[in-house]
Design goal:
Rossmann fold, 8 helices, alpha/beta, globular
Length: 188
């Protein structure tokens, strides 16, 4: 089975989309695209600044335009922002010639991974845990609906998650899969 033209990573903040996406692209020889970083480069400003000046809706418009633009890039792994799935118009562009992988992380894992990150405007308040919980409740059904593959990331190294994604994209013989699983357990 040939590899897909594009792989799109969706999921909540702290699921590892950028880290895993970068490694997955390297492993496959694909381009790595991070929609949030590309928006920042194009605007010459970071995401918190864009949120402050344009509000969340202004940022989401920029995000939709970027997702549409990046849907044209072949042989790529795209790491999306956590909220990119919430605009229905993005669904077509996310799925276009792509396998969508939902990197699913528990609320505890999200809290741990985002605790010190000041570049996440939605979490800059008195109760980031409540925000993460509310976002998960809203977004999890959408991530699940869009996903061709759901990959749990809790307590797994990025390297292991990358291997598991590759195995799901290009399954080998049962004997080879058993060998990889044994290797993966040794590196977890």
């Amino acid at each position: 089975m040939p590899l897909p033209r594009r792989i799109v990573l969706v999921g909540p903040m702290g699921a590892g989309k950028s880290t895993i996406g970068r490694q997955l692209a390297r492993e496959l020889g694909y381009h790595f695209l991070d929609s949030d970083r590309m928006i920042e480069e194009r605007c010459g400003a970071d995401i918190p600044w864009i949120f402050d000046v344009e509000g969340e809706e202004g940022f989401r418009q920029r995000e939709s335009a970027m997702v549409r633009e990046l849907s044209e890039v072949g042989a790529s792994v795209l790491a999306t922002g956590g909220g990119a799935v919430m605009k229905e118009e993005n669904h077509e562009w996310l799925k276009r010639d792509a396998v969508v992988v939902y990197l699913k992380a528990s609320l505890e894992q999200q809290i741990e991974r985002t605790r010190k990150d000041r570049n996440r405007p939605l979490l800059q308040n008195q109760n980031p845990e409540a925000v993460l919980r509310r976002l998960f409740e809203l977004r999890d059904p959408v991530y699940s609906h869009l996903a061709d593959i759901v990959m749990l990331t809790d307590r797994k190294s990025p390297r292991l998650v990358v291997r598991q994604i590759i195995n799901r994209l290009n399954p080998r013989s049962p004997r080879q899969r058993r060998k990889v699983k044994k290797e993966d357990r040794n590196h977890a």
